[in-house]
Amino acid sequence: MTVRSIYRFAVLFALSSSMIAPCVAASPTYRMWLDIQARTGTYEGTLSVLWRNPAPVELAEVFFRLYPNDATLFGSASLAVVAASVGESPVEPALFVDDTVLLVPLPTPVAPGEEVEIRLAFRGRAANSRDGFATSTEYGLLTRSRDVLTLIGFYPFLAPYTGEGWAIDPPALVGDPLFADTATYEVSILVEPGVAAIPVPDGSSLGADGRLQLTYSRQDLRDFSLAIVDSSRAPLERLADRIVLRSWFPASHAEAGRIALDRAAAAVDIYTTLFGPLPYPAIDIVEAPLQRAAGVECSGLFLVASANAAAPRDPFFDIIVSHEMAHQWFYALLGSDPTEEPWLDEALATYASNIFLALAVSEVTAQAERAAWATVYSRARQARPDLRVTSPVSEFPDSQTYASFVYSGGAFELDAIRRQVGDDAFFAALADYVAAHRGKIATGGDLCASFREACGGWVESALCGDGPSPMP
């Protein structure tokens, strides 16, 4: 039995499978008001979600994820919902899965395709890392440091509803937590003067109390994430394929900011040619103190760890920037399940980064990275023959084992497919995969179907359930 079948509240049908219609595609709309106290790392807000039932049956509850309550990845950060209503009716939500899942009951069951408005009032607190991280496991996702307040996963996320039910798996010890449908966001923020909000807002005004009011209107976002820095941190800016790229690094790491912008622009050109265009008008690159991660991806924004920004001429810095940029396609544009199939976006982003290295840096550097994948993956398979690249995140005991299979092993297996089917079929398959699933949640089966169609036959790969690749 999988983690999902244990922890998801699946809908059970008495109907035969032939009588059940597919889930109705739906893109929610989030309307948020936020009051952020950047200096203390606290915030409060209200959220209105216009939600359409995507299931083929009536649903009597809706689930939200409260990611900051996962102490493993978010440390001492927290998120509490203090009031909830559906339409005009107040309701009493309930917490599950270590307070990371919120059940909102619906006063009246909602039919397939029917729409309701769910309103939540919430307050939260970022972890404090000004004097170093308090735990050894947190990433720095919702964290107040000396230089930046990162606000990732900070509000209630509507859980995706998949063919297996609500995606409310328990938090894992490793990997990425965020899993959401794309959505429209209308956001209004109050923040103290003297700071800069990233992304750059669509509108800005000064209120009577001297605080800044910022507004955002965005579509097709997998998440709405923010970073708040001192207004003295000015961005570098460049245009790449009609996308405004901004690099936000402190003066002490100005060279890293310039190199990051160069690498990001080159990556956008390469990935757009291979995978198709992005829907985002801008992408922001922000240096921030991170732990256990060299970079973190969000929709239209990604973080680069301060420790790595201190060595911008190290080849690994190129890998970080190009990897996180690849996540704008393989995470933000194409969603995938980080609990059941963590390899899907990470292996693709890792392999895309290697393509970037080969085309924009040097084939020698790219080849060295591919050789490193083979070594790391081979050792991992020998040490843990019970694990696979395609294992769910819950089966990986630690970060090193997870990275060895999911990143190195997944990229190695993709390279094996490329050598098997040839460049034309390989890149045609990736382009087809992206085009067919833009704005949706894709699966490993979808990717393998694109490979099989592109090469006109069977693909022998551990990724596609068609037998393991030979040991590297």
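The record above closes out task 2.4. Task 2.5 opens with a second protein, given below.
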Amino acid sequence: YFELEDAKKLIKGEHSWLSKSNGKVVKVISTLLPYLPDGYSYRIVFMRRAIEEVLASQRKMLINRGENPDKVSDAQMAEIFKMDLQQSERWINSQAHVTRLDIHYKQLIDQPKPLVSEINRFLGGELDEDKMLGAIDPSLYRHRSSIKL
């Protein structure tokens, strides 16, 4: 996936870049959603993922950065993620200018076609679904849990 570095500036109140993003898809991690400013209508594709997979991915990222992955236990990190997710959920549910579509990451990898169609409809129906399907790379799904959906 591609990340827009400017999205990380939301926490500092910097959102001038949003005006240049109208009509575009921007990845914003759930923790930063409450920092999105009023004055825009947002369509949020909320990617759901098993906490075990998130923790494994987070651990790998910390190792790659040369940071200690055991500085915070998995149980503590899971609790932090849970609280962040609850805060994001409260914000989304309190916003009249936000519409949301929940997508389960594992389902998108396992059975992408119906979900790609659903995402396209949610975003206005003008996207190239073949290109969307081509962007899904199952080899990037490295931290799998045994949870069945």
